[in-house]
């Protein structure tokens, strides 16, 4: 039930615990920022589909599914991102880095709409990484850093994601987020 007519006294609970924490608790800051990132990635996904950038859409969906697991784990669910999903994301980074002349250079956002959205998502992921640092274990923070790297690379307008080998992601080497809630 979303609406109880009782109010919540400025507190909220984590999944699977009876504990109530203040809504301004750092764990909710982290969860809210990860949720914001996932929502923004939904905009990236829709833009990729609209512009028929299927490679970008596959990449975004894999990142979103990984974020669902990170959020669930941070919220108290007994979930963890599987190693095969980490391997797939690392493989995607390796493939993307090979296609960019200077992956350490900075690019001014806005060359294309999709690249600008990826840059915006990268900036939000940087904040999510900082917010998660206090609450998540090192593994999850490392995963958020992987996501940040993917978004940095995907924001390069010179990169043609449709020309990338995203076979591991297409094969489904991404987390299964069904049954989280």
Strand element count: 2
How much of the sequence is in beta strands? under 5%
Terminal CA distance: 14 Å
Rg computed from alpha carbons, rounded to a whole number of angstroms: 17 Å
> Which geometry do the CA atoms define?
elongated
User: Portion of residues in helices?
Assistant: 55-70%
Low-confidence stretches: 175-181
Order of strands, main sheet, comes to 1-2
Discrete helix count: 6
How would you describe what is shown here?
Helix content is 58%, strand content 3%. It is mostly helical and 181 residues long. The radius of gyration is 17 Å and the shape is elongated.
Quick overview:
With 181 residues, this protein is mainly alpha-helical.
Provide keyphrases for this structure.
181 residues; mainly alpha; two-stranded antiparallel sheet; 58% helix
Topology (SSEs and partners):
Elements: E1 11-13, E2 20-22, H1 26-50, H2 54-74, H3 83-99, H4 113-133, H5 138-154, H6 167-170
Antiparallel strand pairs: 1-2
Helix pairs in contact: 1-2, 1-4, 2-5, 3-5, 4-5
